[in-house]
From TrEMBL:
Membrane topology: Multi-pass membrane protein
Protein name stated in the entry: Carbohydrate ABC transporter membrane protein 1 (CUT1 family)
Transmembrane segments: 9-31, 69-88, 95-122, 160-178, 199-218, 260-281
Keywords associated with the record: Membrane, Transmembrane, Transmembrane helix, Transport
Family: Belongs to the binding-protein-dependent transport system permease family.
Gene Ontology CC terms: plasma membrane
Example of a GO biological process term: transmembrane transport
Length: 287
């Protein structure tokens, strides 16, 4: 009988303990604020679960949560298929392989706040290259500072440009790991390109696509810097995602109790949906 070697845990355990400690202290601080109220001078009053009830019943929270889910949904249905298509189109060998890989990785190297600032300048209606091209050259009315639809198109396009590369690189790594024997057998059987993708490439990509979807969900569902720098949550509240609204409550209004309760609800939703994604995508593996 084969026995598993558990010695690797001795090397991982110190890191796990350090990460757990660094995560536990902030979470306990947030929990402490979420059940209390303060009027300053470091004086706190017990509030219980009232903040959680108020947040869950709040129209403001529900609207921001809906916008957050909509943004994440759009990101996933665009970036995952697009990343797979680009990965399938990339060469498997030769000079262009490192060129394509480096080119794909470049957007991810740019800091998040710089990405938001770049796209803000790029899309301004009068001085931005894209804004000027749309309004004055093509004659298409485009103003993300006034039009909610234009603002949504801009933040989604910005995220697609910034993070599709992650899906591309993960998918490409999965594709190059498929043995040539599978392709040779498919060629002998006369399989079409679609059948090769459907029955060989896609099943072999399942693991990396699970990682890609989980990473893109968690990142897009908790995104803050790029859309805040780009639109500031406007025009109006049209692009005020849940993350932006949480910061406004915590820092703008300095309502620490409601902000702490909202952050815990936010955290719980992220964990729950991530768990559902992982469970559904790995359901067949467990059988």
């Amino acid at each position: 009988m084969k026995t598993e070697n558990q010695k690797a845990w001795f090397f991982v355990l110190p890191v796990l303990l350090l990460v757990a400690f660094n995560a536990l202290v902030p979470i306990m601080t947030v929990v402490n604020y979420s059940v209390q109220e303060t009027f300053g001078n470091n004086v706190f009053f017990w509030q219980g679960l009232d903040w959680f009830e108020q947040i869950l019943r709040s129209d403001r929270f529900q609207a921001a949560l809906g916008r957050q889910f909509l943004f994440t949904f759009l990101i996933l249905i665009i970036e995952v298929p697009l990343g797979i298509i680009i990965a399938l189109s990339m060469p498997r060998n030769g000079f262009w392989v490192p060129v394509c890989l480096v080119t794909m990785a470049l957007p991810m190297l740019i800091p998040w706040n710089v990405v938001g600032a770049m796209w803000n300048i790029f899309t301004l209606p009068d001085i931005g290259l894209l804004g000027y091209l749309m309004n004055h050259t093509l004659g298409i009315p485009y103003d993300m500072t006034q039009n909610p639809f234009a603002a949504w198109v801009t933040i989604v396009t910005m995220d697609v440009w910034h993070w599709t590369s992650l899906v591309v690189l993960l998918s490409y790594a999965g594709l190059v790991s498929i043995p040539d024997a599978y392709y040779q057998a498919a060629k002998i059987d006369g399989a079409s390109a679609w059948k090769v993708f459907r029955f060989i490439q896609l099943p072999k990509l399942k693991t990396v696509l699970t990682i890609a979807i989980l990473l893109r969900f968690m990142d897009s569902f908790n995104i803050y810097t790029e859309p805040f720098v780009l639109t500031g949550g406007g025009p109006g509240n049209s692009t005020t995602l849940l993350s932006i609204d949480l910061v406004k409550i915590a820092l703008g209004q300095f309502d620490l109790g409601p902000a702490a309760a909202m952050s815990l609800i936010y955290f719980a939703i992220t964990l729950l949906v991530s768990w559902l994604f992982y469970t559904l995508m790995t359901k067949d593996d467990a059988q």
